[in-house]
Amino acid sequence: MTKCASTGAEAQTPPVTLMAPQRLSDMLDYRLYLVYRDCGYITERLLRTEFGINRRRWRILATVFELEGATLSEIAEGAEMDRAQASRSVGMMVREGFLKRMAKPGNARYAKVVFTAAARELYEAILARYREANVSLLASLSAEEVGQLDVLLGKLRARVAELQAVQPAD
Asked: In this structure, are strands 107-115 and 99-104 parallel, antiparallel, or unpaired?
C-alpha cells in the first residue's frame, strides 16, 4: 500500500508479486492452490473424522441433493469432476445405501440418481458442520472483505472460462 501525498489516504496498488511474478510462490494459481490445500486439510479432516467420507463424495452428495433425479453425466458436470470419478463415487454411495439408481424403463444407461433417507440425514448433518467450518475459515476477514472475495473469485472463474474458450483443445 502506498500513501497519497495529497489526501493522506491509502491508495490501493496491486501487489507487485502477483502482477510481476518472479517465482512460483508469486503465481496466482499457486497461491490459490495453497489456500485450497490448506482449507482442504480442515474440511477433509472434518468430513473423515465426523462423517467417514471424503470431499469428493461430499461434492457428489451435495450435487445429487441439488440435482436429484439427474443422470450420472449431469451429476459429473454439476460437481465439476470427470465422469469416471463421479461414477466411482456414486457407485460406492449406492453400495453403502446413500444413493439409488432409478433405471429408466427401456434404457438402463440413463438411470436417474436419487437420495435415500440415510443420505438426506447425512447431507443435512454435513451441511450444518460445513457451514460452521466455512464461517470459521472466513473469520479473519471483515464482511466487506468476504463480499470482495466472493466477487473476485467469480471474476477469476469467468476469466478462466474466457481463456479456456480461446485455447486450442489438447
From this structure: antiparallel
Residues of the chain with CATH 1.10.10.10: 54-129
Neighbours of 115 (CB within 10 A): 19
- Residues 50-83: tens digit of each pLDDT: 999 999 999 999 999 999 899 999 999 999 999 9
Q: Report whether CATH 3.20.20.100 matches the domain 54-129.
A: no
Mean pLDDT of the chain: 88
87: left (phi over 0), alpha (psi -120 to 50) or beta: alpha
